Amino acid sequence: MPRHYNIPLFIPHLGCPFKCIFCNQNKIASSQGVPAVSGLTAIIDEHLSTIADDGGNTEIAFFGGSFTAIDHELQKKYLAAVQPYLKSGRIGSIRISTRPDYIDDGILNFLGSYGVKTIELGAQSLCDEVLKASGRGYSRDDVFKASHHIKSLGFKLGLQLMTGLPGDNYERDLGSARQAAALNPDLVRIYPTLVIADTPLERLFYEHKYVPLSLPEAIAICKDMFLVFQQHGIDVIRMGLQPGEELRSPGTVVAGPFHPSFGELVEQEVFKEQAGMAIYDYREKAGLKPELALMVHEKDISKMTGHRKSSLLFLKNRFQLESLKVKAHPDLARDTVAVASATDSNPVFTLTRKEFLSVKSRG
Ligand code: SF4
Description:
By secondary structure, the protein is α/β, with parallel strands linked by helices. It has helices spanning 25-32, 40-48, 72-88, 105-113, 128-133, 140-152, 170-182, 200-206, 215-231, 245-248, 262-286, 301-305, 310-318, 353-361; strands at 5-10, 58-63, 93-98, 116-124, 156-163, 187-192, 195-196, 235-239, 253-255, 291-296, 323-328, 337-341, 349-351.
């Protein structure tokens, strides 16, 4: 498959009139600044100099929250600045992210006329109580309307969800994932809520009116949301915020489930659960053996092993094994877990992700 490249252009939403409780928009804006339209070419050229000409597989991504809510003339200038790259074929398409309440016919026609192909909506939740408590200023219905609108005009739809917002709980997060999956987006991102310095959420946290998710809680919720999307064949392209310099600088994250490899931790949990099911089924077939081996694709070894071998240790204890190893097997596809005795060189029982999800969905 040809490789896909993204050239990210961060456009902070300066002067944002909204008051999302978790957002530190001023800090982000003042530290990064808004790129001058005249400076876009230099940023794009620098990225392109590191990417081989890939026949238009490179995309320019305007990130930073709410592209369609910034001044219309400025949107035009940004989009106009990248047109020469689209026309020459060096860039294949443009992606933007925005709020669900800043989508209508006029906006979509405008974006389409400038070659925007993907629109990511910062939905965050599909529960009205959570959206209200988070100060988002729109409802679940707005997300539905915007999503249908985007898809009906032929754009690719991305949905961004957050977990652990004020008023949230496991059922509401999972409900948001199920409703989002029903909208059939082309891609999804899931971000656990962090308490960022100088936000209303920080104040609530210090007043003991908001308790963030712990890291294990956030991993457990995101794992089940991730599996909802996998069940529907929907790509989850990111879990957890990008651990950029800003986020890592001391004092920025006050509390919450921050981990630089959050997505990897979630996928390790998925592998652990899938391997538990595989070992159980293997035992039904092959009987109790004290020394077992789990086999996976070579690129899935760390996902199967877990952080500091935590998944292997957990499974070894749970099944009271004398030893449990993980090995790469060349015949296994990604996301597949196979089980054999420690001395076997080939899998005896194999469980694909699809089979795992199908058993899980039957409860
Ligand atoms: S998260 Fe909310 S407050 Fe922050 S930039 Fe986006 S819309 Fe504005």
